[in-house]
C-alpha cells in the first residue's frame, strides 16, 4: 500500500509551532552565579586531566602521534 | 513481511530481494506505512521524503532486474540529519545549520548511495549532536519506541527510535561521547562506534573533531557489518582515515569465537550498576562461554581521568566550532546546548593540549594493561535503567553537567582512547525497556566485535524483538 502523500513529504513543524519546551529559547544571560558554574566546570575538567595525565616531556605531533598509537595497538588480525 | 513480534533484519531483506521474493518498492512502501503509524509516537524524523524514496526504489528494482548486485541495492535506510549532501540542506538538529546548503556529499552517504541504498528521510537528533538523551527543543524530543515516556538516548536519537520501531532497516549515527552506543543501548539495538579513523568524517557535521566517529545502528550485528563494510576504509578527503583494508561483511563476522577471551571489569569502575542490568551482563557472559569464549575478570585503569580528558577536548573543540554563532546568535541555541558548550571557553589551552599530548601514551598503557589479558571487554554502557524524558529534563543549566556525566560515564572514556565499541542488546527489563552492554576491543578490531555480536545474536532469541505500537 502506498503511504499517503501528506506524510511522504512530511516536515516537522517550525519553531513557532512547537509547544514543547518553549522556555528553552532566548539564550542565557551571564550572571555571577552562572559565571561561577562555568568556572567550576572548567576547573573540574582541569583537575580531572591533571589528576592522572602528565604527558612526558618530548615531541608531540597531534593527531599523527595518536593515529600511530592506534595502528601500533591494533593487534594481529585487525 | 515481518514475523509477529520480530522485525526483519537488513540482511534478511537483502536475501529476500536477491531471491526475488520481495521488491525494493514493496519494502519501501512498507517502511513508509510503518513510518506513518509510528512518527506521531516517536518523532524519529525531522523530514520525510517518501516520493523520492519510492522513485529510488523503482530505480533499484529496475537495476536489479538488469543484473545489478550491489550489496545494499534498494535497502530503505535513513540517517541522522548531520551529513552534507550536495545542493541540499541538513539541520544538524539545530535552528542554525539548516540555512547552509551542502557543497559536496559526505563520504559515508556517497558510499551508501554507491552501494545502492535509498533514503526515506532525515532523522531527528540532539541539537548539534550535543546531548545524550534525545531532547530537542527545535524539532521536538525523539521518544523511545519501547515506551514513549522514556528517552531514546542521544545524540543519534532518531536513528535509535526509527530502527527500533522498524521504520527503517538501518541508520547512520555519530559518536563523540556515546552518541551511537547510547541510543542503540536504550532502544535495544546494535550500535557500532568504530575505531577513530576507521570511517571517514568528511561531510559530517563535527562536534569535536578529535573524538568524532560515524557508524551504524541496526537490529542485528550482521546488519551492522553490512553497513560498516560499505562505509569504512581510507578516504583521501579525511586524512585521519586508516589505510587498512576492510573485509567484505561476511569477513567481518566470521572470526572464530572459540578461545576468545572476554573480560568483565572487577568492581564497579563506572559506579553501581542497576541490578537487572548486572544480571543481564552475567547472562550474556554465560552465552559467550557457551560459544567457546573464555570469561575472565580484569582490573580496569581508572577511567575518570579519561572522561575528564575527553571532556576537555570535546568542550574546547565544540566551543571553537560554535564560538562565533554563540556570540552572535545565542538565542538560536537551546539553553542546555549553550550551557554545555560554554565551559569550553574557560578551559586553558594547556589543559586541552595536555589531554591531546598524553592520548597516545594513555592508549598504549590501557592496551598493555587490559588487552594483554583479554580480546574484548564486556562493560556497562549505562549504569541506570533507561531514564524517562521527565527525569532527564535539561531545562535547568546547573543540573545538566551532572545528568550528562551520569549517562556518559561509561561511554566517553572510549572516545578518548579511540577504541571501537559495539552496543549489544541483551533483552528487555521487567519494566519493558531494553537492557544492554557494550563490547570494547583493540583499535581496528571491529571484526572481533561484530563476530561476537553475530555469535550472540545466533544464540539468543530476543534479537529484532518488535516494540508494540502505542494504542
Describe this structure in words.
The complex is a heterodimer of chains A (78) and B (471). Chain A is built from three helices and no strands. Chain A has helices at 5-8, 32-52, 64-72. Chain B has 471 residues and is an alpha/beta fold. In chain B, 39% of the residues lie in helices and 13% in strands. Chain B is built from 15 helices and eleven strands. Chain B has helices spanning 10-18, 24-42, 50-65, 107-114, 157-164, 181-187, 221-231, 249-252, 275-290, 304-328, 335-342, 349-371, 397-408, 412-417, 446-459, and strands at 45-48, 76-80, 118-123, 171-175, 190-193, 213-218, 261-265, 294-298, 376-379, 421-428, 434-441. In chain B, helix 9 links the parallel strand 7 (261-265) and strand 8. In chain B, helix 2 packs antiparallel against helix 3 and helix 10 crosses helix 11. The longest helix of chain B has 25 residues, at 304-328. Chain B is globular, with a radius of gyration of 20 Å. The relative contact order of chain B is 0.14. The model of chain B has no long low-confidence stretch (mean pLDDT 94). The chains are: A mainly alpha (78), B alpha/beta (471).
Biggest interface, CB < 8 A: A-B, 56 and 80 residues
The average pLDDT score of chain B comes to 94
Q: What is the radius of gyration of chain A?
A: 25 Å
Number of strands of chain A: 0
- Give the strand line-up of the largest sheet of chain B: 4-6-5-10-11-9-7-8
Order of helices and strands of chain B: HHEHEHEHEHEEHHEHEHHHEHHEEH
Radius of gyration of chain B: 20 Å
Please give the share of residues in helix of chain A. Answer: 40-55%
Unreliable parts of chain A = 1-8, 12-26
The N- to C-terminal Cα distance of chain A equals 45 Å
The assigned structural class of chain B equals alpha/beta
Total E-strand runs of chain B = 11
Based on CA inertia axes, which overall geometry of chain B fits? Answer: globular
Strand content of chain A: under 5%
- SS field, number of helical segments of chain B: 15
Low-confidence stretches of chain B: none
Strand content of chain B: 5-15%
Please give the alpha-carbon distance between the first and last residues of chain B.
Answer: 22 Å
Q: Please state the overall shape of chain A, judged from the principal axes of the Cα atoms.
A: elongated
